[in-house]
Design brief:
Elements: E1 2-4, H1 12-20, H2 28-47, E2 52-59, E3 62-69, E4 73-79, H3 83-92, E5 97-107, E6 113-121, E7 129-133, E8 136-137, H4 141-150, E9 158-167, H5 168-178, E10 183-191, E11 193-194, E12 200-201, H6 207-212
Parallel strand pairs: 1-10, 4-5, 4-7, 7-9, 8-9, 9-10
Antiparallel strand pairs: 2-3, 5-6, 11-12
Amino acid sequence: MVKIIGENNSIMNQFIAELRDVKVQNDFMRFRRNLERIGEIFSYELSKELHYESQQVQTPLGFADVNLPSDKLVLATILRAGLPLHQGMLSFFDKAENAFISAYRKYSKDGSFRIQFEHLSCPRIDDKVLVIIDPMLATGASMLLAYKALLEKGTPKHTHIVSVIASKEGVDYIKRNLSQKSVTLWLGAVDDELTVKSYIVPGLGDAGDLAYGGKE
């Protein structure tokens, strides 16, 4: 299932527009904060898909019956670009466990690249709701690699993949490879073009560099 939140008019569209805007992108702090705010919106929408149980809460004047989430969540982030988006989701899902994945594009001299996986820090995910977070879904290769690596820690009862901007090619790739799995794909926007170097167009550039500065 694919849910594109930006297709409906909401304040998220303003935050995505500022992420894309070259006039705003030179403000690292604002870029990170916009990713956090988008993460908060994703969390609110995703929370509607969780399981709930009725519980009784004591107030100063009596008792109130409320429906509270009963799922155990694990928020998994692909470093480093995913950290602000992760923090936004964690501010809502503050009881969630957390996982971190080190994976990046390793380029060859001819401009081609492969996804290099280095490290995974993760709790057991058996029977939990897994949320994999990465701001950009370009080819989908790193997301699929992260998903397979996380399965070494158990079998989640459902997986949510969260990205702010995706390419149509990346969405199709995830759908082809995970169509038989219990997976929901949450997106802010989908762009049509993916260049030969696997950059999303119009996209927004390198989310990691825009959040934390350049790298060598």
